[in-house]
Amino acid sequence: MSERALEISARVEQFVRESVAPYEGDPRCGAHGPSDELAMELKALARKAGVLTPHILPDGSHLSHRETAAVLIRAGLSPLGPIACNVAAPDEGNMYLLGKVGAPEIRERFLAPLVKGEKRSAFFMTEPAEDGGAGSDPMMMQTTCKMDGNHWVINGRKTYITGADGAGVGIIMAKSDDGACMFLVDLPDPAIRIERVMDTIDSSMPGGHAVVSIDNLRVPADQMLGESGEGFRYAQARLAPARLTHCMRWLGACVRANEIATDYANRRMAFGKPLVDHEGVGFMLAENLIDLKQAELMIYWCADVLDTGAVGTTESSMAKVAVSEALMRIADRCVQCMGGQGVTTDTIVEQVFREVRAFRIYDGPTEVHKWSLAKKVKRDWKKVQDQA
User: Fold this and answer.
1) Is residue 386 part of a domain?
2) Which domain holds residue 271?
3) CA dihedral for 93, 99, 101, 106, sign (positive or negative)
4) Fewest 10 Å CB contacts: which of 50, 170, 228, 355?
5) Torsion over CA of 364, 260, 10 and 48, rounded to 10 degrees?
6) Quick check: 226 pLDDT over 90?
C-alpha cells in the first residue's frame, strides 16, 4: 500500500470513529436515510478535517483502486461515514463515471459540485417490473429518447432510484433507435416526478429509493454522455468498480459490527463465564475473522485487476458474490452473538445486518453474477475444445 493511501485512510478512520460515530443515534437518521440537513452537517465536518472526497486528489486525479479500497473500508466503519466523507453510493460511482468519460464542460457543470459535496446525484437505470422494464436485464429498457431539434425528449418510468429525492444531478438511461443512451440533467426538473419513496429494509442512503415518472423531459443534445447507443458501455464502465466499492464500504461496516459483538461477548456473562468462552459464541467470532480476512483479500485482488486497466467485470462479479455473501454471514453472526441486544437500535449491528442484506441485491443480485460466471465457464470450456 502506498504511503499516501495509508496516511489518508488513517485520517479517515480517526474522523469516522471520533466525529461521525457519535451521530449514529441522531433523530435525523430516518427510514429513508439521513436527512440532507444531517448529511451537509457531516460533510462540513469532513471538509474541516480534510477528509471530504478523499479518494479524489486536489488535481482531480483519483487514487488507484487499491488505494481507494484502503480509504473506503475505513469510511465504512460507520453507516454515516461514506456520507460524511462523500464516498457513498450512488455519488461515488457517478463521480467515477463522469471523471472517466465526461467532456470538460460536463465535468465542470455536473462533476465539480459532486466532488465538492455541494450536491447529491442519482442514477436512473432500473425500471418497474409491472412495466416490463429493465432490472438485472438492461436490454429490457422501456424508457425512450427521441431527437427533437437540438434536444432529446425522454419518456418512461424508473424505480429503486437511490437518492432521487433531494438530488441535484441526475444520470438518466434511455433507449434510442441506436441503443442505450446516457444523459446528464439538473435536478429537480418538473418533467421528472417522484411518485413515491419506497419503504425498504435499508436506511443508510439519503433520499431513500424512489419510483419516478419522466414525462417529455427535454435534454440538450450536448448533455448526452458520449454518443447515441453507447449507454450500456458507459454503464458497465461505472458498474464494475461501483460493485467493488460497495464491497469496500460494507466490509468496513462489518469490521465495526464485529468489534461491537466481540466487546459484548467478552463482557456479557452467562452460565458462570463470558459468552466468548462458550464455543457456540467464540467459534462464531472466529469464523467472522476468517470471513473478514477473505473478504479483504478478495477486494484487494479485484482492485489490483482494475488497476491494470482491465474492465474487470469477471473479477468484480466474483468479488460481489464472495464478499456480499461473506458479509451477510458476518452480520448475521454478530446479531446472534449479541442475542436480544443485537436486534435493537442501541448499536449499529442491526442496521448493518439490514444494509448488508440489501447489498446482496445492489448492482445485480448474487444469482445474476453467478450466472454470468457460469456462462464464462462454458465459454472457456468451449474455447479449449475448439483449440484441441
Assistant:
1) no
2) 232-379
3) positive
4) 50
5) 90
6) no
